[in-house]
Amino acid sequence: MSKDYPVPSGYLERETEVKKSRFIARVYPVSSRDEVREHVARAHQDYPDARHVCWAYQIGRPGSAAEAAMNDDGEPSGTAGKPILNVIQHKDMGDVLVIVVRYFGGIKLGAGGLVRAYAGAAESVLSEVGRTIQQSRVQAEVVLGFADEQPLRHWCEGHEGHIESIRYSDRVNALVSVPEIRAGELAAFCDAQKMDYRLET
């Protein structure tokens, strides 16, 4: 589904060290709780001997997220998941999961030290990950003759359009998606080419 707010453009991992404790931070774009569970399970598999695998995520628009959660994974309450989530919220980014894996280095950090260390680890990865904004898109059903398929494909290439599916019968039925701001241009193109056009609702 298209988003008109910033989301991480991909996966990134960064490592920091605080008083001999290693903090390995990972960021992922996510769109469901199932994806969160899969990434957390993978972190446990990748670092089976780590002392803690803490995380936080938010799904939906920054500032009014549809869903958010955090986990301290055995660290004192509020010293890991909450600082990670706070950094996520300050970054104005949606659909994002940050996992911080900790290897204890033998020196206790104290509650304040843990908060700073987990927030710092989250900051290190979120400040470097790319951001992407996908504009809201709409879909339209376009019915056209066989000779018009190539012109439609050509128009899509120049106007950020995608042909999502195509069916052939006596005519061609194409499901086309375009950024919402280009819906009027698609309608005008279809009118000019005498193609039947119906916006999906």
UniProtKB/TrEMBL annotation:
A Pfam family of this chain: Impact_N
PROSITE patterns assigned to the protein according to its UniProt record, in alphabetical order: UPF0029
Record domain UPF0029: where: 143-182
Gene3D superfamilies from the UniProt entry: Impact, N-terminal domain
Residue ranges of domain Impact N-terminal in the record: 19-126
InterPro entries assigned: Impact, Impact_N, Impact_N_sf, Impact_YigZ-like, Ribosomal_Su5_D2-typ_SF, UPF0029_Impact_C, UPF0029_Impact_CS
Record-stated family: Belongs to the IMPACT family.
The protein's name: YigZ family protein
Source species: Marinobacter shengliensis
